[in-house]
Design goal:
Layout (H helix, E strand, L loop, with lengths): L9 H14 L1 H4 L2 E5 L2 E5 L8 H11 L5 E6 L8 E7 L2 H9 L3 E7 L2 E8 L2 H5 L4 H5 L8 E6 L6 H11 L6 E6 L4 H8 L2 H11 L7 E9 L7 H13 L3 E6 L3 H10 L12 H7 L16 E6 L5 E5 L3 H8 L1
Parallel strand pairs: 2-8, 7-8, 10-11
Antiparallel strand pairs: 1-2, 3-4, 4-9, 5-6, 6-7, 9-10, 11-12
Helix pairs in contact: 1-3, 3-8, 4-9, 8-10, 10-12, 10-13
């Protein structure tokens, strides 16, 4: 089967979504300001924000190549609303855009700043080796970057990002929200498909074989502390997330992916994420990287039509975490 004739621009596709987000700031309870000429949107730090803002931010994160919905029912019955994500181009949407892979640091007299950048701006900068593997670099007249945190980007970060994407700061938009907020928790849970793609990449499954994907995870309630909020959003995916991937592969490869992709393949599986994080001394790199994946996976081979399953939903762990 042939692939697309050309690859889309994730920044160009996201641009109208960003404009709509800014235009609806009042209704979404978010705030639009400016830092060193760049547009900055606070979606939940000094503003209340909203679930709808988080849903829209998730679609921006996916570079306009994904659809995010709040749906009734879902994998965990006790929590009846879920975040559903779908993309017909999951590799670009999730790995070239949504994945939080750009480490941004800045130090000045006012202190230090650190955040992981996600969204289409990553593809314009191409600062990560991942883009060499994807053979993708985006050139557009505007760029947007999403930061998970409570602080706006300082002037140094604005200058660094603008230079990396090759645009003036007036063409760059930053969106930020802490995990503890309504928007922040929603957009993190909306990464349920992205973590599956990232895990497939870690397992060295050929990315060009992943044709389509859909995922769903329970919408986690925000928590006032960062540790609790981070634990809930991760538990929503690790113990309550379900993903189906459609692959151009034979049954053997599809079955192996279904068996190795779920979070149950990790040595750290079975413990609430906040406790895993504390046990690791607050060091993400001390946690088994295979834990960061959905609870249950279905891999459908487009060659045979057969679907292969792996993992399991753990409603008890989700309920304990959310409650």
């Amino acid at each position: 089967m042939g692939g697309p004739l050309s690859r889309p621009s994730v920044n160009a596709l996201a641009a109208p979504l960003v404009e709509a987000l800014a235009a609806d700031a009042g209704a979404l309870r978010i705030r639009v300001t400016e830092v060193s000429g760049a547009r900055v949107i606070d979606a939940g730090a000094s503003t209340r924000g909203s679930i709808e803002a988080g849903r829209r931010i998730a679609e921006i994160c996916m570079g306009g190549l994904g659809r995010v919905s709040i749906v009734p029912a879902g994998p965990v019955r006790a929590w009846p609303f879920s975040v559903q994500v779908h993309s017909a181009d999951p590799v670009l949407a999730c790995l070239a855009s949504q994945y939080a892979g750009w480490s941004l640091t800045d130090k000045d007299e006012g202190g230090s700043f650190f955040a992981l950048g996600s969204g289409p701006g990553r593809a314009a900068a191409g600062a990560e080796s991942l883009f060499e593997e994807l053979a993708y670099r985006d050139a557009a007249s505007s760029a947007v970057l999403v930061l998970e945190g409570a602080d706006p980007p300082p002037a140094g970060i604005v200058a660094k990002v603008a230079a990396a994407v090759g645009l003036g700061p007036e063409a760059v938009t930053f969106i930020y929200a802490p995990t503890q907020s309504l928007a922040g928790s929603t957009q993190v849970v909306a990464r349920v498909l992205e973590v599956a793609l990232h895990k497939a990449h870690e397992l060295r499954f050929p990315l060009d074989r992943i044709v389509d994907g859909i995922g769903v995870a329970p919408l986690s309630p925000p928590a006032p502390s960062f540790l609790a909020a981070m634990g809930r959003t991760n538990d929503a995916i690790i113990y309550g997330g379900r993903v189906q991937l459609f692959v151009d592969a034979d049954d053997g490869d599809a079955r192996q992916l279904a068996e190795t992709l779920p979070s149950s393949a990790s040595r750290d599986h079975g413990t609430p994420f906040a406790r895993v994080f504390e046990k690791a001394g607050g060091d993400f790199y001390a946690i088994d990287k295979h834990l960061f994946s959905p609870a249950e996976v279905i891999v459908t081979s487009l060659r045979s039509g057969a679907s292969h399953r792996g993992g399991r939903i753990e409603p008890g762990l989700v309920e304990a975490s959310f409650a």
